[in-house]
Design goal:
globular, Non-ribosomal Peptide Synthetase Peptidyl Carrier Protein, Chain A, single chain, 80 residues, mainly alpha, 3 helices
Length: 80
């Protein structure tokens, strides 16, 4: 687990989150309604900018956005 990547992902999620949620690496951000579906699209754009990469429609699924850990795993997979 890359803590630096997870911390960066959490920083991207926080401004999009609903209310004061303490986002941890294993926080279920979609299931627990921390962010909504529109925010997932914005999050993808922010991740692409922050990590200088592309996340194509065929490259990721909604499961890749369940938690900061899952997002970090997707980033690592796509950057290889």
């Amino acid at each position: 687990m890359d803590n630096n990547t997870i911390e960066r992902v959490i920083k991207l999620i926080k401004p999009m989150s609903r209310g004061k949620v303490d986002i941890q690496p294993d926080t279920m951000i979609i299931e627990d309604k921390v962010i909504d579906s529109l925010s997932v699209i914005n999050l993808i754009m922010e991740i692409e900018r922050e990590f200088d990469m592309r996340m194509g429609v065929m490259d990721v699924t909604i499961d890749d956005f369940q938690s900061p850990i899952k997002i970090q795993e997707a980033i690592d997979r796509l950057k290889k």
